[in-house]
Design goal:
This protein has 153 residues and is α+β, with helices and mostly antiparallel strands. It has helices at 13-26, 37-50, 105-120, 131-139; strands spanning 3-7, 55-62, 65-76, 87-96, 124-128, 143-145, 148-152.
């Protein structure tokens, strides 16, 4: 199988929703029987309004299908001792569809997020980790802080 890391653009709104819905279902936050049309619409509207602006998303394409995704929401806050620029990024929705797991897709997406962040001068990244994701993030230097994990770069 051929896999390719890509940066998502507006044309991936539907695929972004599909993987986000899978993630929410797997986490037990939604069920297949629920009417998710309002959440779907809000998610797609947010994606289209923010992608390439204050949100950057990557994905792994396998044989033309988006198999994994991850996003970085960018924001600025008042500077503090560990981050004099105030530029920060929140990593979210690192997710791989079950049949594509154990191929290193999440790691490749995270590597892209870290490279982008370094290039953009982002000094602080944070995320909320699932139990399954904690070891992946820890190997990259993230440390646990409550239910969040952080990486100061």
């Amino acid at each position: 199988m051929t896999a390719e890391l890509i940066e998502l653009d507006e044309s991936y709104a539907e695929d972004f929703w599909r993987l986000r819905k899978e993630l929410f279902t797997e986490l037990g936050e939604v069920t297949e029987s629920e009417d998710l049309s309002a959440l779907e619409e809000a998610t797609k509207q947010y994606f289209l309004a923010h992608i390439g602006q204050d949100m950057v998303s990557w994905g792994m394409l396998e044989n033309g299908k988006l198999a994994a995704t991850g996003s970085l929401c960018l924001f600025s806050r008042i500077p503090y001792a560990e981050n004099l620029t105030g530029q920060e990024g929140y990593i979210l929705n690192i997710y791989t569809s079950p049949k594509y797991r154990k191929q290193g897709y999440a790691k490749q997406i995270l590597d892209a997020i870290l490279a982008y962040s370094k290039g953009a001068g982002i000094k602080h990244l944070w995320l909320n980790a699932s139990e399954d994701g904690e070891s992946v993030y820890a190997k990259l230097g993230f440390t646990k802080k409550g239910n969040e994990m952080e990486l100061f770069m």
